[in-house]
Amino acid sequence: MSTPYTYAAATPGDHYLDGNALAGLLSQFLPGDPTLHECRCPACGSTEPLARALVYLNCPGTVIRCCHCTAVILQLTTTPTATYLTFPAHTTLRLPPDR
């Protein structure tokens, strides 16, 4: 599925970072540089590196959204006893092969 290369429009109240803010958070779970892993959005089907995602830190946990349609592609929540990675249905994260 071909999706035009556009980015989601921010609203004045949006406070987000790009996906490079995920490097430290996700490096403990994913091999290599996690911001380079490609993620396919469950809503619009766009595939982009996590570095291009919209990262919202001022939520309960961290919410990562698609840069094209702003659909949630990943949630990261840390509690005193565990860290939870939540992928909405049909989200795909492509990991590189072991080297």
In short:
This protein has 99 residues and is mainly beta. It has 1 helix and 8 strands.
Structural summary, described in words:
The chain has one domain. It is mainly beta. The N terminus is likely disordered. The protein is built from 1 helix and 8 strands; from the N terminus they run E-H-E-E-E-E-E-E-E. The strands form 2 sheets. Strands 1-4-5-6-7 form a 5-stranded antiparallel beta sheet, with no helix packed on it. A 3-stranded antiparallel beta sheet has the order 3-2-8, with no helix packed on it. 22% of the residues are buried. A hairpin with a 1-residue loop joins strand 4 and strand 5.
Topology:
Layout: E1 17-18, H1 23-26, E2 38-40, E3 47-49, E4 54-59, E5 61-65, E6 72-78, E7 83-86, E8 92-94
Antiparallel strand pairs: 1-4, 2-3, 2-8, 4-5, 5-6, 6-7
Strand content: 25-35%
Largest sheet: 5 strands, antiparallel
Q: Radius of gyration in whole Å, from Cα?
A: 13 Å
Task: List segments where confidence is low: pLDDT < 50 over at least 5 consecutive residues.
Answer: 1-5
Can you write the helix and strand succession as a string?
Answer: EHEEEEEEE
Judged by helices, strands and strand pairing, the structural class is mainly beta
For the record, the count of structural domains works out to: 1
Count of strand segments = 8
Pfam families: DUF6510 (PF20120)
InterPro entries: DUF6510
